[in-house]
Structure to design on (433 residues):
């Protein structure tokens, strides 16, 4: 009598890898359903000053008044990318706030799918699916997506730029021109949406060109990078021309950099004061001087730089503290009544495991060597954390960094799982691209 061979259960990791695209798509759909539901709950209420400003700018654009503030004429105070994204939704819906919330909702869903594509490229399909699931279920990103804030659309544009750049510089690229042009336009719109990502664009192109310098097709990569950067300047250059004509000054993107710099760098500034910092003495002096929008921006910037140069030690300590606070789980909020212990708890329980896994991924680079894409993501995290601290930190401003950390956390988990199945001391990495 023969004995049937024992049944070997199918490894969960194999199932996850085989069904990765379907898992990622399910994550997209679940995220879309969840954020749509949250948008419905939030309704038409605009709870924050920034939301009201962006909605007003979108209304002016949709109404044919240009990029202007009612009663004040043309402005360049807010970066224009996000209001331009909101304007079509405002126009077709007759000004519905819910319709404008769909910009963030759709950007969030698109980010989930792009996270899958990027991590699949960096590591494996199973890691990509895990990144999509983690991103789809991340509360802070979902909440920010449904507010009228530009951070989630900017995160989508950043991921789109990364994916198209990697495709354009791949030896197997089938649509070189389309990917290069698309990456450049995404980069330009990204800069006009959140100007802080300008250095990320330069860092990405420089990194890709550098790591492919020994490849046979490096000359093509170099030309692609140059064309990409040229295309990326088109939208910002057009906006500069508009500012020169309308506000009669050279304004690369917006005129709120000065006040943001001052809010984070003045005698009363603290690690957590943020946008609620006390700069009343400066605003009173500015009012007495009757400055224009552009002059006011320069005044605030000069005052901040004067304080930094006069107090270099204090400024350095404050900056270091702000860098550390960038990775905090909570804000000291400027608007009374917003503090929520449950929200803080959820923030801590979701953010710190992601941060720990991302840190583990980098710390164990000898065991699991970082792929070029993972190195790029890690450097983008560092770059944007350092840039945020130049001004001031807020959880919502950090959300794109959280998204990048999730990509690294997913590859960390994938490596741990592969080690588990491959046996002790055998990383079992797939060769990443």
């Amino acid at each position: 009598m023969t004995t049937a061979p024992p049944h070997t259960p199918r490894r969960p990791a194999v199932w996850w890898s085989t069904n990765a695209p379907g898992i990622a798509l399910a994550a997209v759909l679940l995220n879309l359903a969840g954020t749509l539901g949250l948008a419905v709950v939030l309704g038409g209420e605009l709870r924050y000053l920034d939301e009201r400003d962006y909605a007003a700018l979108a209304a002016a654009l949709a109404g044919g008044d240009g990029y202007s503030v009612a009663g004040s004429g043309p402005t360049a105070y807010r970066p224009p990318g996000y209001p331009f994204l909101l304007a079509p939704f405002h126009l077709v819906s007759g000004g519905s706030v819910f319709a404008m919330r769909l910009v963030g909702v759709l950007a969030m869903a698109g980010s989930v799918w792009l996270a899958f594509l990027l991590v699949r490229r960096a590591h494996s399909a199973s890691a990509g699916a895990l990144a999509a699931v983690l991103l789809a279920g991340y509360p802070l990103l979902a909440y920010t997506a449904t507010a009228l804030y530009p951070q989630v659309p900017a995160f989508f544009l950043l991921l789109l730029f990364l994916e198209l750049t990697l495709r354009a510089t791949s030896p197997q690229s089938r649509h070189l021109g389309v990917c290069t042009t698309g990456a450049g336009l995404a980069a330009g719109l990204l800069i006009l949406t959140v100007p802080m990502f300008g250095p990320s664009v330069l860092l990405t192109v420089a990194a890709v060109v550098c790591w492919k310098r020994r490849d046979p097709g490096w000359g093509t990569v170099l030309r692609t990078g140059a064309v990409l950067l040229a295309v990326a300047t088109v939208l910002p250059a057009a906006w500069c021309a508009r500012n020169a004509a309308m506000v009669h000054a050279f304004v690369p993107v917006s005129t709120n950099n000065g006040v943001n710099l001052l809010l984070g760098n003045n005698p009363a500034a603290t690690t957590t004061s943020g946008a609620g910092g006390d700069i009343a003495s400066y605003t009173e002096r500015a009012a007495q001087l009757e400055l224009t929008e552009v002059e006011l921006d320069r005044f605030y910037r000069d005052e901040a730089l004067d304080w930094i140069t006069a107090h270099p030690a204090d400024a350095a300590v404050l900056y270091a503290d702000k860098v550390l606070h960038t990775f905090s789980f909570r804000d000291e909020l400027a608007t009374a009544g917003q503090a929520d212990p449950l929200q803080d708890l959820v923030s801590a329980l979701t953010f710190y495991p992601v941060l720990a896994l991302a840190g583990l991924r980098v710390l164990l680079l000898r065991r699991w060597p970082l792929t070029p894409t993972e190195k790029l993501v890690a450097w983008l995290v560092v770059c944007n954390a350092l840039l945020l601290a130049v001004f001031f930190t807020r959880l919502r401003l950090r959300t794109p960094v959280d998204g990048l950390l999730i990509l690294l956390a997913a590859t960390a988990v994938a490596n741990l799982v592969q080690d588990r199945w491959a046996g002790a001391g055998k990383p079992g990495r797939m060769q990443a691209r």
Q: What stands out?
A: Residues 1-9, 424-433 have pLDDT under 50 and may be disordered.
